[in-house]
TrEMBL record:
Keywords: Oxidoreductase. The keyword Oxidoreductase applies. InterPro entries: KR_dom, NAD(P)-bd_dom_sf, Sc_DH/Rdtase_CS, SDR_fam. It comes from Motilibacter peucedani. Residues 3-180 form the Ketoreductase domain. GO terms for biological process: fatty acid biosynthetic process. This is 3-oxoacyl-[acyl-carrier protein] reductase.
Amino acid sequence: MGRSALVTGGNRGIGLAVVRALVEAGDSVTATYRSGEPPADAPEGVTWVRADVTDTAAVDAAFEAAQEAHGPVEVAVANAGITKDQLVMRMPDEDFTSVLDTNLTGSFRVARRAAAGMLRLKRGRIVLVSSVVALSGSAGQVNYAASKSGLVGLARSLAREVGSRGITVNVVAPGFVETDMTAQLSDARRTEILGSVPLKRLASPEEVAAVVRFLAGEDAAYVTGAVVPVDGGLGMGH
């Protein structure tokens, strides 16, 4: 397709899989990362930018770098996120607000900057990466669940604002995915999780990325304001 795409949190897990999927689709990708380094096995031609989505200036700089390298951004995937799990009675204010600032307000910063450029182009795709816990909830994750459910309202409101300009805004809601984070789970916890998933397995990052790629592509031109679960059936009924 040859478009300019920007992916936040693109140096590992779901974000890296999305980077690879968009490159395979023919897009020119700019990927942001907050810490660490770009992966050695990343696709060739990706523009890497160190940026923290809690910093508006850093988000703006990432979009400017993407435009300089590949042209105006036509696909934006807000994937960067953090967790700070704790039971609510023990959760300090900072752990609540910092998770919202990264996961929800950070995605707002990305979507706002993306929409501004896409309105001028009169086309574009914005995809926000949420979670199955956005609607089902999760004990010990009131901050994370609140941030991820907020993405649904953000996306659907923005979809109504920009739809007349040929811009779609959608949400992907993964369940448990094979990442560095889930690799740290105990065998007992892993067995418990799999027992609640109808497909009896975790998703691969590539399976989530495939849905992101679909929503970012031409085949999804009439899909907007949608929340697409990629959770093996875990969130059915929510």
